[in-house]
Structures are given as structure tokens and as C-alpha cells.
Write a structure and sequence with these properties.
With 389 residues, the protein is mainly β. Helices cover 12% and strands 43% of the residues. InterPro entries: PorV, T9SS_OM_PorV.
Length: 389
């Protein structure tokens, strides 16, 4: 096997975390990558922003507040562009607002590792075998407006991870699991202030709640799904009928147990047996109990728990609902992954078609896999229009 095979797979698994003892890592981390350029332009923010076709990933409860009856979107995100040119994330989404109180949506997300050439020996004359590891998730959601200002949604997700490479002694059957999301969204009426009108928004989403994913049909070696809690709020400054500025802040925390200190006997030295025992104890935690443990199991106490919370600040300027300019900042503790970046984005809408693009600038010493990468999204909204308030 070429060394690049292992390098690429390990890089992806580790891209969302810095290699430290208590950094939280999970299986299928592609579920946490922002697929659409609008959210990416605001530093991966979407749980409390205004509704769009990509709300399925961020907060499907927003769909019942859509002014469009139906929408379809597609996005493309190159990955690890400084190393390869065939690793990418793609997503398609469709939503339908059945009536003023009900909506449903479906999406398909695919992460491809590209083509990897394998040889059984180091003989350069040996014919290469091409494999294409990949992962995907298929989602469906239903949202219901509980009042004029508040809605909730539930989503189901099937996850399939095909990373194992077949050989005579290895079963290459893909690993799979399922998960659910529970989300809520609040949007106020337009409020008249002295010099402008405004609108408040708030939202939450508990994502990827489900059983561990097992690659070897072995419970001890099973990996946690990236269960995640997102909470956010925002405010729209509606300056006049043409100009609007939206500001938002979002917090996120993985609902996954924190790895414990491998120095089990406290003598200041970590042996191989202690490290193996620590790893076995961690992987024996059930996925349901792990969610509750995640709020208070950090060895460093409450201060370390706070470091496991990421935050983002984003802004969006809209002109006549036709042109948009976006920017944002994302922060993660250096001890828990060290992702820090600024983002810029823009969007243009003509008739029923909307095009969005975003770009990321890393401000961390840890290399971001999306650095120097343009993300593209294309959205089509059609059908009858709904009047909100």
C-alpha cells in the first residue's frame, strides 16, 4: 500500500483536532464541516440565521419560516487542496413548505477521499489497484411551527463510512450507523425602533444523537458519532426597504466524553499498559451515557469544559435581497483543536437562482484543511410565495 493512503485517511480524521491527549475526536467528522458557502462565509454559522435551502445541516426548524414554498441547492467544497486535488465534500438539499405550519426536507452529503493507488509490494512494475474510500449521510427532516414565532424540527440520518481497504485477511464491509437531530428556532416580528426596524432570531440544534459506528464489528473499538450541541442568536438591522445587516453569534460543544489522563496511578509516568487501559476504558463508555458525561468529565474541571466550547461571530449585509457580503470569525481553544479563522463570503441572487461563494483565512498555527479554498453553493427557489407576518 502506498504511504499516501494512510497519510490521507489519518489527515482527515485528525483535521478537526490537534494531536493532544484530551482533544476530542470522533468518527465521520465530515458531518461537522460546513458544506454551504453562505454559512462558511459567516464562520460556520447557521443555527440562528435566516432560513435558506441549506438549513437542513444547521437548523431544519427554520424551514417553516421560508417565504418560498420549495427550494433545491447543491454545494461543492474542495478539501486539503494544498496536498491533493481530488478530495472533496458535496451536498444536495431539497425542502418543501407544505403549508404555513409544516415543512419537510431531505439532503445527501458525500465526502470522497479521491482515488488511491495500491500495490501489494514495492515493485514499481506491479499493476496498481485503485480504491476510492468515501463516506456519506442521507437525511430527512420534518418541522412544525408551534406558534407564530417558534418552531421545532426532528431529523433522521443514515451514515455510511467506507474507509476500509479489502485484502485477503480484511473484511472491507462499510461501517454504518444512524442518528437523530432535535432543533428549535425563534424569529420575532419586525420591530420598529427609532431609526430602523429590527428582528430577533434564536435557535438550537442537538445533532447526531445515535449509536457508535463500528468498523470491525467490535463494540470496544467502536467510535463515537460527532454528537453536537449548537446554540445561537442574532439580530437583523432593517435599515430601509433595500438595506439590511444581520449580526449573529453561535456556540457549539461536542456531546462526546473527554479523553482522561492516561497516568492512571498518578506517578508522573505513562506506561504502555496504562495507555491501553485508558483507551479501553474510554471506548467502553456507551454513546447515550457519553452525552451526559460530556458536560462534566473534563479532567481540568469547569475551566476545561469551557475550553471545549467553540464560538463564532458573523455578519451579513444584504442589498435588495439580491446581493450579499459576509464575514465572520471562528475560535476554538488551542488545547482542544486550535481552529481559528476569519472568513469572507458573497452572494448574488437573480430571479430564482442564488450563487454563493466563501473563502477562509486561518489564524492558527495548526493547518486548516480548508485554508486557501473557495466554497461554492447554488440554490434554486421556486413555487408559491408565503408572506411572513
Amino acid at each position: 500500500m502506498k504511504k499516501t493512503t494512510l497519510i490521507l485517511i489519518c489527515l482527515f480524521i485528525a483535521t478537526l483536532a490537534k494531536a493532544q491527549e484530551r482533544t476530542i475526536t470522533t468518527a465521520v467528522p465530515f458531518l461537522l464541516v460546513a458544506a454551504d458557502a453562505r454559512a462558511a462565509g459567516m464562520a460556520d454559522q447557521g443555527v440562528a440565521t435566516s432560513v435558506d435551502a441549506f438549513s437542513q445541516q444547521w437548523n431544519p426548524a427554520k424551514y417553516v419560516f421560508s417565504e418560498d414554498k420549495q427550494g433545491f441547492s447543491v454545494s461543492y467544497t474542495p478539501y486539503l487542496t494544498d496536498l491533493v486535488n481530488d478530495v472533496s465534500l458535496g451536498q444536495i438539499t431539497y425542502f418543501n413548505k407544505i403549508n404555513d405550519r409544516n415543512a419537510f426536507a431531505a439532503s445527501f452529503r458525500y465526502f470522497g477521499f479521491g482515488d488511491i493507488a495500491l500495490r501489494e509490494t514495492d515493485n514499481p512494475l506491479e499493476q496498481e489497484r485503485i480504491v476510492s474510500p468515501n463516506e456519506f449521510a442521507l437525511d430527512g427532516s420534518y418541522s412544525l411551527k408551534l406558534s407564530e414565532k417558534f418552531s421545532m424540527a426532528v431529523a433522521g440520518r443514515y451514515i455510511r463510512s467506507n474507509l476500509k481497504i479489502a485484502s485477503e485477511n480484511i473484511d472491507a464491509s462499510p461501517a454504518s450507523s444512524f442518528a437523530v437531530d432535535v432543533a428549535g428556532f425563534y424569529q420575532s416580528e419586525e420591530i420598529a425602533y427609532s431609526d430602523f426596524n429590527g428582528r430577533w432570531r434564536g435557535g438550537f440544534n442537538i445533532q447526531n444523537i445515535g449509536p457508535k459506528i463500528k468498523y470491525d464489528n467490535d463494540e470496544i473499538n467502536a467510535n463515537f458519532l460527532p454528537a453536537n450541541l449548537k446554540v445561537g442568536g442574532g439580530f437583523d438591522f432593517i435599515l430601509d426597504e433595500y438595506n439590511k445587516i444581520g449580526l449573529g453569534v453561535e456556540f457549539s460543544k461536542l456531546l462526546v466524553p473527554t479523553p482522561q489522563d492516561p497516568d492512571l496511578n498518578g506517578d508522573g509516568t505513562v506506561t504502555a499498559d496504562e495507555r491501553n487501559q485508558n483507551r479501553e476504558d474510554y471506548r467502553s463508555i456507551g454513546w447515550a451515557s457519553g452525552i451526559f458525561k460530556s458536560f462534566g468529565d473534563a479532567p481540568g474541571g469547569f475551566s476545561e469544559e469551557l475550553k471545549e466550547i467553540t464560538y463564532s461571530i458573523g455578519a451579513e449585509y444584504m442589498y435588495q435581497d439580491s446581493f450579499a457580503f459576509r464575514m465572520g470569525y471562528f475560535h476554538e481553544s488551542p488545547e482542544k483543536g486550535a481552529r481559528k479563522f476569519f472568513s469572507l463570503g458573497a452572494g448574488f441572487k437573480y430571479n430564482v437562482v442564488k450563487v454563493d461563494v466563501s473563502y477562509l483565512f486561518s489564524t492558527s498555527n495548526v493547518k486548516n484543511p480548508l485554508e486557501n479554498t473557495l466554497r461554492f453553493s447554488l440554490t434554486f427557489n421556486f413555487g408559491d410565495k408565503y408572506e411572513i407576518y
